[in-house]
Design goal:
Strand content of chain B: 15-25%
Radius of gyration of chain B: 22 Å
Oligomer: heterodimer
Number of helices of chain B: 4
Distance between the termini of chain B: 73 Å
Structural class of chain B: alpha+beta
Number of strands of chain A: 28
Strand order of the largest sheet of chain B: 4-3-2-1-5-6
Order of helices and strands of chain B: HEEEEEHHEHE
Helix content of chain A: 10-25%
Shape of chain A: elongated
Strand content of chain A: 35-45%
Largest interface: A-B, 91 and 77 residues
Number of helices of chain A: 13
């Protein structure tokens, strides 16, 4: 951790803890003098209000029942609040009109603020100790629902961390905002990364309410029915159908294995007997990755330390062997694979990189395939599944591809940015903190249909001081050459932070990611 | 969007400040000092014709007594009063705002979790802070509020018989300002100073 971050951390701790602990409310308690014995001696101060308006403020006191007198040290003020003296005094209880004590305690508001502070400081501590787990993403696209609510729609080409890994990524847009036949998305760079976007196009499929268009994961799109077919999904722990039969931000997920991050699990899918063998069906999966792949990627960069640039440039120059090695750990974690008849027949897979935005893809099942023994195979702790559906599939469909106009955050048209983003021979580059609006003009006014975002590009991570300190080239190369061993070795490290990461990320009630 | 966020933060912080008082700076003491405080809270009254504010002296069956900052003694019948607000002690607006500000700023250290923790602070922070700040205030809504307000009066036991012309709001003068004649008796039927 850098000195600046340590200073920042302690400054925030001091400000927040001292701020919240100093926020108190006062509870006053008044006692008639004849009930003086009810006043707790633990009260440091006690005020004795006299009938004349005078007041004694005791800072030390005791009560004598035998002579009905209060003895102690007090400041004495007359009714005009002039301080008359401070001394040891005896005051007859019969002369006292009212006894006042005060208790300071945390107010409800301050208590709530303390809870928020606790969560926030835990998050700060966690992120400063585990920088790799908190920083880093890729081009992020939002739909602004209103001035305060934004929906995270897509993260572009998350796996493309080098120019040689440049790829096209297609993400379903689930909650679009269309005004005057224009669909608008907010593009941000929220990480310490340089994003190079070759293009960012809207794929539009006009259709009515009775159907939908689904991406197959292989840049193909199919019409599908909107009719819901009831299925039953069972995990190793039991029936999880209720959790994943709606696209509602309630996710099925398992935790990673404690000894080996590569351990797999299975979800069994039971389809109704009424399915028609003459029709083609598909399994629709709406899911995103957990933070496991993010952790492993940053751990690899961390082990590479100062050599990261050199090694990554070697990956760029190599003919394939080295880059294959670099990708090996990711391949072991794998996609969500759909099988029939146990693990014998692989039908297809759901592939999406990144822990932020949920993507929706359909895996078409060949006509005539055995629908009675479907199961999904996935790496434990690697996926967050929002929905699994069975749908009837129809013909392939081609999209209407729409290029964007780029606007600044103040909504001023940026011609140069628009030309750059729409020119395939150039890259539109964004730096940390950059933000733009992409506006897509739809060809018709009905605006009904399905929408996807097609991005192509790559991004470059900025190395951080914290990562260099973990430099260990032996471990770095083991991650590439002996990935299975490292997935076992890193299991305890990941498991230590996994519950905290998941708790904060998934239990938050404050932000809606998407519907 | 950044501009909107900044505006939102400003609006929310101003929201904390909405729990306002007309009390001059320094007259209300911190909650920790309240156990030693010998003055009343700050009361703001509105009748059908005027607004008046000052140190709350006492509240009795039918009347409320206060003294304004220019040391004018005021006695008002309760049924003349349209609205009343008492601030018992320092509301710590600045401290609460600082805590929310520090909390909001601290979320820059949360990486991409900032999308969760920053809204948590800018929504939950000001609500909690405002709730805290308002715990120092009592607004008159029904008869029981007069009783609650009287706990923060200079004379919670009721208005004593005294020379009202000599009363000063938040009087800071001490023993040295008193003439010998004005000093209390060394011993009385009700008090004795130990030798």
């Amino acid at each position: 951790m850098s000195k600046k971050k340590i200073t920042f951390f302690w400054l925030m701790c001091v400000l927040l803890i001292s701020g919240c602990s100093a926020l108190k409310k006062v509870e006053k308690k008044f006692t008639p003098p004849e009930k003086l014995q009810e006043v707790e001696l633990s009260n440091t101060y006690m005020k004795a209000h006299m009938g004349s308006g005078d007041v004694y403020v005791f800072n030390r006191w005791s009560y004598s029942e035998t002579d009905s007198m209060i003895r102690g040290n007090a400041k004495y003020y007359n009714a005009y609040r002039d301080e008359v003296f401070e001394d040891s005094v005896n005051v007859f209880i019969a002369d006292i009109e009212l006894i006042e004590t005060n208790v300071t305690e945390m107010s409800g508001g301050a208590a709530a603020l303390s809870v928020v502070t606790g969560i926030s400081l835990a998050m700060t501590t966690f992120c400063l100790l585990n920088t790799k787990a908190c920083f880093g993403s890729c081009p992020t696209f939002y739909t602004d629902i209103n001035d305060t609510l934004s929906v995270l729609e897509a993260e572009g080409f998350s796996a493309s961390v080098l120019p040689s890994l440049e790829a096209t990524d297609i993400d379903a847009l689930k909650q679009v905002s269309i005004k005057d036949s224009r669909l608008e998305l907010r593009l941000t760079n929220e990480a310490l990364e340089t994003h190079n976007i070759k293009y960012s196009n809207l794929l539009y499929f006009p259709h009515g309410d009775d159907k939908q268009v689904l991406a197959t994961g292989y840049s193909e799109f199919r019409y599908a029915s909107n009719e819901k077919i009831e299925i039953t999904i069972t995990s190793e722990t039991g029936n999880v159908t209720d959790l994943i039969n709606e696209l509602d931000d309630s996710y099925y997920y398992s935790l990673a294995d404690s000894n080996d991050l590569a351990v797999k699990e299975f979800l069994k899918i039971e389809v109704p007997a009424s399915t028609d063998p003459d029709k083609q069906y598909g399994i629709v999966i709406s899911a995103r990755q957990s933070l496991l792949s993010t952790f492993l990627f940053y751990q690899a960069l961390s082990y590479l330390g100062e050599n990261a640039t050199y090694v990554l440039s070697e990956v760029e120059r190599s003919e394939g062997g080295f880059s294959e090695r670099v990708e090996s750990m990711n391949r072991i974690l794998g996609d969500i694979e759909l099988y029939t008849n146990g693990e014998k027949n692989l039908i297809g897979s759901f592939k999406e990189t990144g822990p932020l935005a949920t993507d929706v893809q359909v895996i078409p099942i060949p006509q005539g395939a055995d629908l009675n023994n479907l199961q999904l195979k996935l790496n434990r702790g690697h996926w967050r599944i929002d929905q699994i559906q069975l749908v009837e599939l129809f013909d392939e469909v081609k999209p209407i591809r729409i290029q964007p106009e780029v606007y600044s955050t103040s909504k001023e048209y940026d011609e140069l940015a628009t030309q750059t983003l729409n020119n395939p021979s150039k890259y539109f580059t964004t730096l940390p903190g950059d933000e733009y609006y992409l506006s897509f003009t739809l060809p018709d006014s009905s605006s009904e249909g399905s929408f996807y975002l097609e991005n192509r590009g790559y991004y470059l991570e900025w190395m951080r001081d914290e990562w260099v300190k973990e430099q260990d080239m032996t471990k770095a190369f083991e991650m590439f050459l002996r990935p299975r061993k490292m997935l076992r070795e890193l299991a305890p490290v990941y498991k230590e932070m996994e519950p905290e990461m998941e708790k904060i990320f998934w239990n938050s009630q404050f932000v809606s990611h998407e519907n | 969007m950044k501009t909107k966020s900044v505006l939102l933060i400003i609006v929310l912080f101003v929201g904390i400040g909405c729990a306002t008082t007309t009390a001059p700076s320094g007259v209300l003491r911190s909650p920790d000092f309240e156990a030693q405080n010998i003055f009343g809270g700050w009361v703001e009254l509105k009748t059908g014709v005027e607004k008046i504010d000052g140190e709350l002296l006492a509240i009795e069956q039918d009347s409320i007594f206060l003294i304004t900052m220019d040391n004018t003694f005021v006695s008002l019948a309760k049924d003349q009063i349209v609205s009343a607000k008492l601030t018992g002690y320092d509301m710590q607006n600045a401290l609460a705002s600082l805590a929310v500000f520090a909390g909001s700023v601290s979320t820059v250290s949360h990486g991409f979790y900032l999308v969760l923790t920053f809204p948590m602070w800018i929504i939950g922070g000001p609500i909690s802070a405002t709730s805290h700040v308002k715990s120092a205030q009592i607004n008159y809504k029904n008869e029981s509020d007069w009783y609650n307000m009287s706990e923060f009066a200079r004379y919670p036991q009721g208005m004593p018989n005294l020379d009202r012309a000599r009363l000063k709001a938040y009087n800071k003068s001490g023993l040295n300002d008193l003439s010998e004649k004005e000093k209390p008796r060394e011993r009385s039927s009700w008090t004795s100073k130990e030798s």
